[in-house]
Specification:
Protein name: Methyltransferase domain-containing protein
Strand order of the largest sheet: 3-2-1-4-5-7-6
Strand content: 25-35%
Keywords: Methyltransferase, Transferase
InterPro entries: Methyltransf_25, SAM-dependent_MTases_sf
Number of domains: 1
CATH class: Alpha Beta
GO molecular function: methyltransferase activity
Radius of gyration: 15 Å
Oligomer: single chain
Distance between the termini: 39 Å
Shape: globular
CATH topology: Rossmann fold
Organism: Novosphingobium decolorationis
Length: 198
């Protein structure tokens, strides 16, 4: 599915960075940044333009090829790696920041991944995440898991538990207008989360 979507002529989620990422980028710890489920690279490329040393990972080689092309167009370099997040080794204490924008996964895998993110952050490192909440299904906007995968959405309480041990900077559920390409559009219920490792 993802290779097919990312092979389409237009960028599936546009070429501009996520709004929450732009709003809170100055709160991220500068240095090595890992972007999870990064797709066609819009966020990774923008972070590279801000001076981060970015590694973008995704299961789709097609999406990552588009990410490299976008980076070249914007005059920056990013590292890309096609991985399965179920067994991707992020290392221990390796990253200054980790970014996950609309990276929806089955609950067990998500909890495991988030625990690995905590271990992979350096002391003082930050994680930034935005995801759809279960309330998205009451909103007119497009995007996120289908109703059959409602448990792939996230909540503020759930993220606070999954990232236990980090110090929250922002943890809020909001309804906001999203304009990100063809597949994320309209009024949507989301959770926005930013935290720092002590």
């Amino acid at each position: 599915m993802w290779d097919e979507r990312y092979a389409q002529a237009d960028h599936a989620y546009g070429t501009e960075p996520n709004d929450f990422l732009v709003e809170r980028a100055t709160d991220l710890t500068a240095g090595r940044c890992l972007c999870l489920a990064e797709g066609q690279g819009r966020n990774a490329v923008w972070l590279a333009q801000q001076g981060f040393d970015v590694t973008a990972v995704d299961q789709s080689p097609v999406g990552l090829q588009r990410a490299r092309e976008l980076a070249a167009e914007r005059g920056v370099e990013i590292t890309t790696c096609a991985v399965d997040l179920a067994d991707y080794d992020m290392g221990t204490g390796m990253w200054d920041s980790v970014v996950a924008i609309f990276a929806h996964l089955p609950p067990r895998l998500r909890r495991d991944l988030h625990a690995r993110v905590v271990g992979a952050l350096k002391p003082g490192g930050t994680v930034l995440l935005e995801a759809y909440t279960p309330d998205k299904y009451t909103q007119p906007g497009t995007g996120g898991p289908p109703p059959s995968q409602k448990d792939w959405t996230m909540t503020r309480a759930g993220l606070l538990a999954e990232f236990a041990g980090l110090e929250p900077i922002c943890a809020e559920e909001v309804v906001r207008e999203i304009t990100e390409g063809e597949y994320h559009r309209g009024q949507s219920a989301v959770v926005r989360f930013l935290a720092r490792k002590p």
